[in-house]
Amino acid sequence: MKFSIGDKILLKQTDEEGVVTSIINHDMFEVSVNGVVFPVHKDDIDHPYLKWFTQKKSQSAPVIPEVWPVEKNVPQRPRLSKGVYLSFMPMYKKDVFEDIVEGFKLYLINEMPTDIQIHYDAKILQQNIFSYKGKLHAFAHLYLHNISLDEMNDQPRFHWKLSDAGNEPLKPEEGILRIRPQKLFEQIQEILQNNEPTFQYLLVTDFKEKLPEVSPKNPPKSPLPTIKRHAAKSFRTDELPRTVLDLHIEQLVNDATGWSNAEIITLQIQTLQRYLALALLHHLPRMIVIHGVGKGKLKDEVHKVLRQVPEIKSFANEWMGGYGFGATEIHFKQ
User: Which string of DSSP letters, residue by residue, matches 265-320?
Assistant: First the structure.
């Protein structure tokens, strides 16, 4: 093995490192180890590079612990609860500093164990921009269409009608979704902050049985003028309350042809008063009254009646899956 003056060496016997200070002859060298200079034979020294390499390799090798640490639980995003959702997935365009939302992809998500029939329309200023009729399988999703951010700022109305494809006796559910610009801005900010891919609106949680038809010759009778718990004693004992009351005239009579608006709204309010009294009699905690959106005339009349019932704790006309803004939720005092 060749050595030159200044080369690093390793003493084989003591595993000490030194440096070659001079060459005595072909077989003898003079080395300095920790300040001590002495001659050595070439067979007693070696280059230290192999030692350095093995030391670095052993230091870089991972130390296997006797007990592996327990893996931390990573919170999983909860799956959507049972229902049908309209989902908005943002589409982004690149900007100098950040990604900017330029529109949305719309999906219908079925988290129910049954196939559903779909009738969907998207409209802007009464102009239809997309329509779809078809079926969506259980626990599946369906891509509908794209819509730009500018179109969303025009407050489009998403009309939907859903029904249980395997159970015709159940009543279809329908409604209209409209997202105000301020609410849309809040939704976008929320998904950006939470690093979420979409935001959803719940449309339907289940399908209910169809309401029994009422003949126009025998419309529901009006209860006593003041709705109190004792007022319902005059009702038939076999008459049951409803947690959901649909006041659309087609749900109350077979045929309202020839009825005036005054006659229709009178029947609707009489029906409301009757089922409010039944709800009080049976001590229901809550009730939903469907009045639709329209011009708001029926909703105003419904709220006028509700304000006069002292047994009502609160009521609100807010967005609800399945009804949109077309229903009012009532909570009774217990």
Answer: HHHHHHHHHHHHHHHHHTT-SEEEEE--STTSHHHHHHHHHHHT-TTEEEEE---B
